[in-house]
C-alpha cells in the first residue's frame, strides 16, 4: 500500500459481505457502497486525479472477465463506471479532516506506469503555474455524466448540434445539483471559504464537496429563523461550487483572461443564485420560494419574513411579482432554463476589457440564437415563439436589477458576520460586484 493510500485509511467493521463492484468477499461500507479493499484503493486513486480515464479497449466485454483486458491488465474505464453505477461517490474520497491526499495528487496522471517510476505527472515543469491551471476541467464530472448521457462532450456547439449541446447542458445541471431526494439533507458538511475566487475556479471542491443542494427535497428541515441564520455561509459555499462547475464547462468562459473570469463570477453570483431558487420553486409548483438544503419561504410565512430586512422584501417581491410569473408565462422548461442561465451570465460586458467585452457579446448572441432556434423547433405558431422568446429574454435584466438592490444586504451579512459570512470568498465577491 502506498503512502497516499495510508493517508485515507478508514477502519469500518468488516461484515463478510461481497463487493458490489467485483463480487469478492470481505466487503466493507465505504464511499457509499459495500466494496472490497482492492476496489476501495482503486476508487480512491482514480477519484483523486485530474486526468481523464481512458476508454475501454475491448468494447465493454471485459466486464464479464472481472474487468481484465486482452493484455491481462485491468480496464479502468469499465471498473470506474461500475463503481459509479453501484453508488460510489467520488466527491467524498480523501475528505477526512487534515487529509492532504487530493492536494498531493492534483497534478498526477493515471497513465500506464513504468516499473519503479510510480505515477507520471501530467504537468510540464517548464510551464508557469497559471499556464498549468488554465482550463483544467475536473474529469470526474464528465465521467459521472456518462451515466446520464452517452457522450462525454463538454459544451461546444462547433462539435455537436444545437439539440445535443442543449441536452448536454441539461445533463450537466442534473450532475452539478447532485440531488438525492431519498436521503436526508446534509448541513454538517465541511467547507473552506478562506480562499480566493481564483483558487475556487481552479478547484471548486476545495471550497466544499458537492453535497445535494436540495431545492424542495423530500425531507425539508422545517427550519426556524435560528436555523436560517446559521446556514448562510454553507449556502455561499455550495452555490459557489455549483456556479464554478457550470462556468468551467462553458467554452467562452475560458476565452477570458483569468482576472476577467474572476470578475464575471463575482458580477453574476447573486443573479445566478436567485435564478436557481426561482426556477426550482417555479418548476415544482411551490407556493413560495425554495432555498438550499430543504428550507423554504412559503406564502404563509410572508408576514414574518417581511419584517426581517429590506433584502428579504426585495427577494420576495422580485420572485413572486416578476420573475416566477415570467417563467410561467414563458412555459420555461429545463432546456430553456439552461440556455437562460448562459444568456444571463453573458448579459452585460460592463467593466471588461475590449477583448473581454467582445467575447461576452458573442457568447450572449450565441446562446440567444440557440434559444430562438430551440423555440422555433418546439413551439408553434410563430407568434407564440416570439412571445415566449421575448418573455424569457426579459428575465436577465430583472435578475440583475435584483442583484443590484440585494448587494448592500449581502455586504451587511459580511460586515456583521451573520451566519459566518465574514470570509475571504464573500468579501471578494462583494468587492468585485
UniProtKB/TrEMBL annotation:
GO terms for molecular function: DNA-binding transcription factor activity; sequence-specific DNA binding; zinc ion binding. It holds the Pfam family Hormone_recep. Residues 16-95 form the Nuclear receptor domain. Keywords: DNA-binding, Metal-binding, Nucleus, Receptor, Transcription, Transcription regulation, Zinc, Zinc-finger. InterPro entries: C.elegans_NHRs, NHR-like_dom_sf, Nucl_hrmn_rcpt_lig-bd, Znf_hrmn_rcpt, Znf_NHR/GATA. It comes from the Eukaryota. Residues 192-432 form the NR LBD domain. PANTHER family: NUCLEAR HORMONE RECEPTOR FAMILY, NUCLEAR HORMONE RECEPTOR FAMILY-RELATED-RELATED. This is Nuclear receptor domain-containing protein.
Amino acid at each position: 500500500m502506498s503512502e497516499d493510500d495510508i493517508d485515507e485509511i478508514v477502519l469500518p467493521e468488516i461484515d463478510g459481505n461481497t463487493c458490489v463492484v467485483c463480487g469478492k468477499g470481505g466487503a466493507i461500507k465505504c464511499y457509499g457502497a459495500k466494496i472490497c479493499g482492492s476496489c476501495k484503493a482503486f476508487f480512491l486513486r482514480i477519484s483523486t486525479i485530474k486526468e481523464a480515464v481512458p476508454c475501454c479497449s475491448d468494447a465493454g466485454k471485459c466486464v464479464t472477465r472481472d474487468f481484465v483486458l486482452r493484455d491481462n491488465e485491468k480496464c479502468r474505464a469499465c471498473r470506474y463506471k461500475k463503481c459509479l453505477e453501484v453508488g460510489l461517490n467520488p466527491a467524498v474520497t480523501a475528505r477526512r479532516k487534515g487529509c492532504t491526499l487530493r492536494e498531493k495528487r492534483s497534478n498526477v496522471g493515471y497513465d500506464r506506469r513504468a516499473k519503479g517510476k510510480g505515477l507520471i505527472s501530467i504537468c510540464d515543469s517548464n510551464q508557469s503555474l497559471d499556464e498549468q491551471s488554465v482550463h483544467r476541467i475536473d474529469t470526474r464530472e464528465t465521467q459521472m455524466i456518462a451515466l446520464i448521457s452517452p457522450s462525454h462532450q463538454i459544451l461546444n456547439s462547433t462539435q455537436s448540434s444545437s439539440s445535443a449541446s442543449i441536452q448536454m447542458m441539461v445533463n450537466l445541471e442534473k450532475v452539478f445539483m447532485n440531488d438525492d431526494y431519498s436521503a436526508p439533507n446534509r448541513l454538517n458538511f465541511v467547507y473552506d471559504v478562506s480562499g480566493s475566487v481564483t483558487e475556487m475556479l481552479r478547484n471548486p471542491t476545495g471550497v466544499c464537496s458537492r453535497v445535494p443542494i436540495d431545492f424542495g427535497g423530500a425531507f425539508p428541515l422545517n427550519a426556524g429563523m435560528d436555523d436560517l441564520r446559521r446556514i448562510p455561509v454553507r449556502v455561499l459555499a455550495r452555490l459557489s461550487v455549483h456556479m464554478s462547475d457550470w462556468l468551467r464547462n462553458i467554452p467562452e468562459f475560458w476565452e477570458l483572461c483569468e482576472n476577467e473570469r474572476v470578475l464575471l463570477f463575482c458580477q453574476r453570483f447573486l443573479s445566478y443564485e436567485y435564478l436557481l431558487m426561482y426556477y426550482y420553486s417555479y418548476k415544482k409548483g411551490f407556493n413560495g420560494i425554495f432555498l438550499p438544503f430543504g428550507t423554504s419561504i412559503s406564502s404563509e410565512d410572508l408576514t414574518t419574513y417581511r419584517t426581517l430586512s429590506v433584502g428579504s422584501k426585495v427577494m420576495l417581491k422580485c420572485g413572486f411579482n416578476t420573475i416566477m410569473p415570467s417563467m410561467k408565462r414563458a412555459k420555461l422548461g429545463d432546456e430553456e432554463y439552461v440556455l437562460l442561465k448562459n444568456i444571463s451570465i453573458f448579459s452585460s460586458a460592463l467593466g471588461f476589457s475590449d477583448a473581454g467585452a467582445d467575447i461576452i457579446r458573442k457568447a450572449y448572441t450565441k446562446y440567444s440564437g440557440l434559444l430562438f432556434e430551440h423555440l422555433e423547433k418546439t413551439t408553434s405558431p410563430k407568434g407564440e415563439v416570439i412571445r415566449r422568446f421575448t418573455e424569457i429574454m426579459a428575465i436577465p435584466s430583472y435578475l440583475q436589477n435584483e442583484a443590484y438592490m440585494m448587494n448592500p444586504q449581502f455586504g451587511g451579512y459580511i460586515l456583521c458576520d451573520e451566519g459566518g459570512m465574514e470570509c475571504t470568498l464573500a468579501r471578494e465577491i462583494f468587492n468585485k460586484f
